[in-house]
DNA sequence: ATGGTTGGTCTCCAA
């Protein structure tokens, strides 16, 4: 069984349902994971996706914030979610394919503006969230699993436009990068994007605030596709659809792709 | 050093 998987922070699935349909039509992935849907589940436009053949849909939502959804044209069952940091946030949903592979769709807290948990509780929440990921993966080693989503951390020097200028900027601080690696190593997760594209600058997000996002190209790689060690060799053909950042009324994130032969 | 843009909801908060 082979399938193409995409992760995309959509920044409102209701406002950008048309862009999701464009991606499904033009790129025809088998499974699409969305974050920041900003909608209760019952108001997510699942029918529009079903009309394109994507008849399987699992999601967790809430009004205005967070929200994650998995849209699939392959049979998929709801495999639950974890209430990270016990806040009741809709930041995780899992779907299981017929081959037993579980896809975890995650939205890690952005962490606010100040990289100091003493003065910014949102940064503390982010660190606690990623530490909980580490602890849970230590408790139970993931198998036959894929973890995707907006992890809001750019771990490598070539995952940001300027390593030096971003060392104190939330998303690329050493404490976050350390936490990211601890979580990854605890689960023996393999970064499929970097397994496929080991060298060079790679971004999946460009700020709305840039005058010329494409020309300035001050991006960060915040969106990730990880696979558990037992199936990592099945991952290939990674790419980031940068063009989607230039679509009409775009999300500030671009879709990240990988293919799996399982 | 600062401000820059966008979305959702209800006047500002989150990103």
UniProtKB/TrEMBL annotation:
The active site is at residues 107, 150, 253. Mg(2+) binds at residues 9, 36, 150, 152, 252-253. InterPro entries: AP_endonuc_1, AP_endonuclease_F1_BS, Endo/exonu/phosph_ase_sf, Endo/exonuclease/phosphatase, ExoIII-like. CDD domains: ExoIII-like_AP-endo. Probably binds two magnesium or manganese ions per subunit. Residues 6-253 form the Endonuclease/exonuclease/phosphatase domain. The record marks 152 as: Transition state stabilizer. The record marks 223 as: Important for catalytic activity. GO terms for biological process: DNA repair. Pfam families: Exo_endo_phos. Keywords: Hydrolase, Magnesium, Manganese, Metal-binding. PANTHER family: EXODEOXYRIBONUCLEASE III. Belongs to the DNA repair enzymes AP/ExoA family. This is Exodeoxyribonuclease III. It comes from Pararhodobacter oceanensis.
């Amino acid at each position: 069984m082979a399938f193409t998987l995409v992760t995309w922070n959509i920044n409102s699935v209701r406002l950008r349902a048309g862009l999701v349909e464009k991606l499904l039509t033009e790129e025809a992935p088998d499974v699409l994971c969305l974050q920041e849907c900003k909608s209760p589940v019952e108001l997510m436009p699942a029918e529009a996706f079903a009309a394109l053949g994507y008849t399987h849909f699992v999601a967790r939502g809430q009004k205005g914030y967070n929200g994650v959804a998995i849209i699939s044209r392959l049979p998929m069952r709801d495999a639950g979610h974890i209430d990270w940091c016990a806040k009741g946030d809709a930041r995780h949903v899992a779907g299981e394919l017929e081959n037993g592979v579980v896809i975890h769709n995650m939205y890690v807290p952005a962490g606010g503006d100040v990289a100091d948990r003493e003065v910014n509780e949102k940064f503390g929440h982010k660190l606690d969230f990623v530490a909980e990921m580490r602890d849970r993966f230590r408790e139970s080693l993931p198998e036959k699993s894929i973890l995707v989503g907006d992890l809001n951390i750019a771990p490598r020097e070539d995952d940001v436009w300027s390593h030096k200028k971003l060392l104190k900027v939330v998303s690329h601080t050493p404490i976050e990068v350390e936490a990211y690696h601890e979580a990854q190593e605890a689960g023996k997760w393999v970064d499929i994007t970097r397994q496929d594209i080991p060298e060079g600058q790679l971004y999946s997000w460009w700020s709305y605030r840039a005058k010329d996002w494409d020309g300035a190209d001050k991006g960060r790689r915040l969106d990730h596709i990880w696979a558990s060690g037992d199936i990592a060799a099945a991952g290939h053909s990674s790419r980031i659809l940068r063009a989607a950042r230039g679509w009409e009324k775009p999300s500030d994130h671009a879709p990240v792709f990988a293919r799996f032969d399982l």
